[in-house]
């Protein structure tokens, strides 16, 4: 996943944004990336759990 999309933000009406604006944008981008990573990890955990459940059902039904 391209994380550049979070840092590619245009600031309107100012030629040179302040350091505060840059810091806020960087903090926001980091938070969004962290949330996206957590979402992906949750999806992986659910997929793994589903696969384990599926294997368990296959073993139980094959007995």
Walk me through this protein's architecture.
With 63 residues, the protein is mostly helical. Helix content is 76%, strand content 0%. The chain is built from 2 helices and no strands. The protein has helices at residues 4-7, 19-62. It starts with a helix and ends with a helix. The relative contact order is 0.10. The mean pLDDT is 79.
Task: Note the run of SSEs as H and E.
Answer: HH
For the residues shown, what is the average pLDDT?
79
Helix vs. strand class: mainly alpha
Radius of gyration: 21 Å
Uncertain spans = none
Write the layout of secondary structure elements.
Layout: H1 4-7, H2 19-62
Protein traits:
single chain, 63 residues, mainly alpha, 76% helix, rod-shaped
């Amino acid at each position: 996943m391209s994380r550049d999309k979070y840092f590619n933000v245009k600031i309107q009406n100012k030629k040179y944004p302040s350091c505060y604006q840059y810091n806020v944008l960087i903090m926001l981008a980091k938070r969004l990336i962290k949330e996206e990573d957590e979402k992906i990890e949750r999806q992986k955990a659910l997929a793994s759990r589903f696969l384990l459940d599926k294997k368990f059902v296959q073993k139980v039904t094959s007995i």
